[in-house]
Write a structure and sequence with these properties.
Elements: H1 3-6, H2 11-20, E1 22-32, E2 35-44, E3 48-53, E4 62-67, E5 73-81, E6 84-89, H3 95-101, E7 116-126, E8 129-138, E9 142-147, E10 156-160, E11 167-175, E12 178-183, H4 189-199
Antiparallel strand pairs: 1-2, 1-4, 2-3, 3-6, 4-5, 5-6, 7-8, 7-10, 8-9, 9-12, 10-11, 11-12
Amino acid sequence: MSRVARAAAPEQHERRALERETMVLRVGLLESGGKLSFCLVKNISAAGVQVKIYGHISPDSPVALKVGDESPLEGRVIWVEDQLGGIEFNTALDPTTLLRVTQKLASTKRRSSPRVNAAVRAVLRTGGHTFTAELCDISTSGAKVRTRKVIEPGPWVLLDLPGMPTIRAHVRWAEEHELGLSFDAAIPIQIIAGWVNERLQVSS
């Protein structure tokens, strides 16, 4: 039985809430007390969500959950156990938003995974050349970096960040000295979550 559903007192209401829940595995970001941490959305209904937490969140804490480019979903942590947590939304999700979060509707938005703002020195290597860069933001599937050298969209690059294995990426877009990178393979959530928790002071 889902712990999110157990938050509702009457047994009949719990059963109905369970019937409405949808299993979904999507990377999300939790904001609590001005700090962000990665999470994995596991089950969701209009009333609440179950997540795997890669950070520290206390029961009864107000939180905001961001999935993809959706507006943050505000709620309260009602239980935490063994890296799992249950969040009750302040306002029930409307059917359209619930479908988008569970990816049942085709998304026209650019990002499927939320990004963490960052300011970290980086190195880009491409075409036999090495460029110093600054990381602007990062997710499990991509990043934005700023360089002194203009690099056109198209080529593959190697992105080096302190404390992170070298990342192979494709330059998806370029605007003056900023580049949008799409990673060749998604970074496992436990790796990027640990890296963020150890190295970055993050904000939404």
